[in-house]
Amino acid sequence: MKPFRLSRALPVLFATLAACAPALAQDNQSDKLFHDCRAAWADNNIGAADELCYKSLTAPDFKDVPAEARSLRIYNYAQLKRMIGNWEAAEELLLETLALEEARAGAKPDLPLARRLAELSIAYAAQGKWPEGIDVVQRMMPVADQFKGGERAAVAEIFRNYVPQVAAAGRTELARQLNDFSESAPAPEPAFIQR
Question: Residue 59 to residues 6, 43, 56, 104: CA-CA distances in angstroms?
Fold first, then answer.
C-alpha cells in the first residue's frame, strides 16, 4: 500500500484552517483555558497546549459554549493532536467536530465542513484507513471547488494521494474526478527555486 505523504502544500491548509474562524469567547473557564491553550501553542509549548486544550474541552462550562465555538475548539485540538502524531485522538476529535458541523450545515456541505473532512481524510490516510478515507474524500469532492489558494493546493495534494487507493478500490469515476481536480491545482513550486 502506498504510504501517505504530507507535502509542502499541506502545512498551508493547516495554518489556514487554524485561523479561519474567530475565537468566539464567552468569559468562562473553558474560554480562558482555550485562550491559554492557543497562547501556549503559539509559543511552541506543545505539551502545555495539549493539556490546556484538553482542560478547555472538559471544563464544566464547556457545554455552555455556543456550538460554533465548541466545534472550533474541538477542531483546533484535533489539529494539535494531528501535529504531534496522535492520529487516533485526532480522528476521534474530528468526528466529534464533524458531527457539530453537519448539524449546523444540514444537507448542503459548506467550506467549514469540508475543512474538517480534509483533516479527517489525512488522519485516515496516516492510519492506513483508506476505505474510510475514500468515503470522506468522496463527500469532500462536491465542495472542493470552494477551496482557494493554498487550501486548494493542499486539497489537490490530498486527492493526489488518494487517486491510487480509489482506483485500486475499483472506483474509477471517483479516481478520475480526484485526478482531474489535482491536475487543475498543481503543487506549488518549492520555495528554494529562484527564478
Answer: 34, 23, 5, 23
What are the two backbone dihedrals, phi and then psi, of residue 28, each rounded to the nearest 5 degrees? -125, 180
Report the alpha-carbon angle 153-126-14, nearest 5: 40
28-42 pLDDT per residue, tens: 899 999 999 999 999
15, amino acid identity: A
The residue range of the domain holding 96 is: 66-184
Provide CB contacts within 8 A for 116, sequence distance 6+. Answer: 75, 94, 97, 98, 101
Its pTM stands at: 0.81
Give how many domains the chain has, as a whole number: 1
Q: Does a structural domain hold residue 57?
A: no
Is residue 91 domain-resident? Answer: yes
Segment 117-174, tens digit of pLDDT: 999 999 999 999 999 999 999 999 999 999 998 999 999 999 999 999 999 999 999 9
